[in-house]
Amino acid sequence: MNTTPQPDPKDRPARLTVGVVGAGRVGPALAASLQLAGHRPVAVSAVSDASRRRAAQLLPDVPLMPPAEVLRRSDLVLLTVPDDALPDLVAGLADTGSVRPGQLLVHTSGRYGARVLDPALRAGALPLALHPAMTFTGTPVDVQRLAGCSFGVTAPEELRLAAEALVIEMGGEPEWISEENRPLYHAALALGANHLVTLVAQSMELLSAAGVAAPDRMLGPLLGAALDNALRSGDAALTGPVARGDAGTVAAHVTELRRHAPQTVAGYLAMARATADRALAHGLLKPELAEDLLGVLAHGTDGTEGDAR
Asked: Which pLDDT score, from 0 to 100, does residue 5 have?
């Protein structure tokens, strides 16, 4: 349920023509969501075959056009390109006169705030940074997932209400992020979401190697409960051999990983050290057990098994 106070009607954006520059996984989904709210997608810029297919699936009958033409037709432009490409794209659009005064220019990068749009601001555009804290598939399911999704919002103060209104129209929850905190905000999301995918994929591969026929079915309830517990209780939700100080079990893990999946050893040790530090700091790991455990973790990368005692 959306608990964010609704903007006053006068602060809501009027019905807008919407363009998308960069039809990756994010842009077409946001444009489709805005369409459901009454706005009108009118143009999409897409280069690869995959992006063209996404645009056709999520925004049927919306024509494909060069970026300059997308801006010419649109009141609101979604710049949904990779982070590293964004500054040059904005500078290029401003230098070529593609940006119109009064045009809403929205980027979806988590890393950047509104200042990356300064070249367009100088050309008269209205800059907004709206980053959905969501993983995208490039399929229609993404539009449904935006319901209740948090958006990291950064904009000039005078545009804050308009930015938040757009997020609410897409079914999202606006969360104000200051310009200087955008990189930290994005690092936090990447640490939680991107690394989770890597950890889960590695876990499924190891379960398959151990003979488990349906790793996803085994992990689903476990990971669901672990995530729920972590969100509810934070570090108090820590369980397992590291939090218990079972140095012998951890040493056995390292031995098996080195034998069957050596590429996972460094990640296992790094996460185990971080877990041990947090468990120790929060009183979950007994200090008298921590010494042996940390010894195992310290020696785990040099091919020894550590002293599990």
From this structure: 54
* Tokens representing residue 240 in the block: 């397992």
Mean pLDDT of 145-156: 97
> What Rg, from alpha-carbon coordinates, does the chain have?
24
Structure-token pair, residue 75: 């009141």
- 8 Å CB contact between 26 and 136: yes
In this predicted model, what pLDDT tens digit does every residue of 276-300 receive, in sequence order? 999 999 999 999 999 999 999 998 7
- Kindly report the three-state secondary structure assignment for every residue of the chain: CCCCCCCCHHHCCCCCEEEEECCCCCHHHHHHHHHHCCCEEEEEECCCHHHHHHHHHHCCCCCECCHHHHHHHCCEEEECCCHHHHHHHHHHHHHCCCCCCCCEEEECCCCCCCHHHHHHHHCCCEEEEEEECCCCCCCCHHHHHCCCCEEEEECCHHHHHHHHHHHHHCCCEEEECCHHHHHHHHHHHHHHHHHHHHHHHHHHHHHHHCCCCCHHHHHHHHHHHHHHHHHHHHHHHCCCHHHHCCHHHHHHHHHHHHHHCHHHHHHHHHHHHHHHHHHHHCCCCCHHHHHHHHHHHHHHHHCCCCCCC
CB 140 within 8 A of CB 57: yes
Nearest to 235 by CA among 165, 305, 282, 202: 282
- Tokens 């672990």 correspond to 226
Q: How far apart are CA 162 and CA 127, in angstroms?
A: 11
User: What per-residue confidence (pLDDT) applies to 300?
Assistant: 73
Question: CA–CA separation, 140 vs 264, rounded Å?
Answer: 34
Q: Residue 207, Cβ neighbours under 10 Å: how many?
A: 16
**Residue whose tokens read 């959306």:** 2
CA–CA dist 296, 222 (Å, integer): 26
Residue type at 140 in one-letter notation: P
Which tokens in the block code for residue 190? 């990447």
**Buried/exposed code over 278-294 (b: 16+ C-beta within 10 A; e: otherwise):** bbbeeebbeeebbebbb
Strands 17-21 and 40-45 turn out to be parallel
